[in-house]
Amino acid sequence: MRVDVYNALLNAQRKDEKLTDEEQRLVEKMILDGKHAALALPEDKRTELMKLKKGFSVVCTDFSQNYNWVR
């Protein structure tokens, strides 16, 4: 999800717009997805988190390859 979409969802929720129950649940779920994607963090923290995730992914891939090689 893009940051601008996440911010638009937050604004829609804050303005207490007239949404059906289904639409409200969708907005809440999308906001939660945005939080899980670190969109609630400031840009510098989000960038740092993405670097850490990428490094972790590389380490996990290396481990899996080495583990499979040993077996």
TrEMBL record:
Source species, domain of life: Eukaryota
SUPFAM superfamilies listed in its UniProt record: Metalloproteases ('zincins'), catalytic domain
InterPro entries assigned to the protein according to its UniProt record, in alphabetical order: Neurolysin/TOP_N
Name the UniProt record assigns to this protein: Metallopeptidase MepB
Protein's organism: Rhizoctonia solani 123E
